[in-house]
Amino acid sequence: MSVGTAKLAHRPWWPWVRRIATWTFFGLIAWLLVNQARAIDWQEVFDAMRALPAATLLLAGALAACSFAVYSTYDLLGRHLTRHPLGAGTVMGVTFISYAFNLNLGSLVGGVAFRYRLYSRLELSNGTITRVLGFSMLTNWLGYLVAAGVVFCFWPLVLPAGWRIDNTGLRILGAVLLLLAAAYLVLCAFASGHVFRIHRHSFKVPSLRMALLQLAMSCLNWSLIGGVIWVLLQGQVPYHSVLAVLLVAAVAGVITHVPAGLGVLEAVFIALLSDQVPQGRLLGVLLVYRGLYYLLPLGVATLAYFVAELRAKRWRARAVVNEESKQ
Known about the structure:
Strand order of the largest sheet: 1-2
Number of strands: 2
Radius of gyration: 22 Å
Distance between the termini: 48 Å
Number of helices: 13
Shape: globular
Structural class: mainly alpha
Helix content: over 70%
Low-confidence stretches: 1-9
Largest sheet: 2 strands, antiparallel
Mean pLDDT: 82
Oligomer: single chain
Number of domains: 1
């Protein structure tokens, strides 16, 4: 925190300014969503949802399940690096729960808070949890760099005329993303094992083999997510276009900090694909996607979280009894 920011934080009016600015932003988002919703033919949306064949829904659901399975292995990489004693099944369970809540409630609540809560109850230290969490985040965004770099370079989107970036700019952006990913791989190839320290945090450079595994897992996951939407669209839009729009929407959701990217995902898809798919049908597909990839896993994760809490309480109770019996 800079000196100027620290001074502002100690002023009694500053927290109120931040709160007002935050609520104003969310109010603006809500107004835009309501205004946009009035222009939508909701009957067309519901008809599009009902028209999706059962086989399409099953295939999309299977791809969503595969994506969650792949993401749930991210923390296993951190387990390998930190050598903590938790079993693979336990680690994947924590990662699944955190990911589901992350998608719906945002990264601070889901990806960070739930990991610290669950791992700390399993007696991992905060330092170990931070390293596992940081490596999983790195894995996720490394795959993003490569996936986005490839589609932006070789299959650039046809962007609306009013946008500040054109196809050439998108290709340049894609090349920059690929260079960043390549730089990480080069670092891992020539500086494996080196420890970088930033303030109180340290980062040990993994091996090139580990970096390539990160890359493969994350690229596969992003590809599966794009596959869910592409299957629901029943091939009406080329797969690379769907994936490119998804990647743009992912960054837009992170920038706006809207939980679950609510409205942001739909707005980006409508802006970029409404010339290829009728707006009502496109929105219907995205709502089904939210149900399959956001809400259904959230329900499963909620049940799994309560089960994990009950198991942790029982485990601690048995530990207390054993300790007392020894005395």
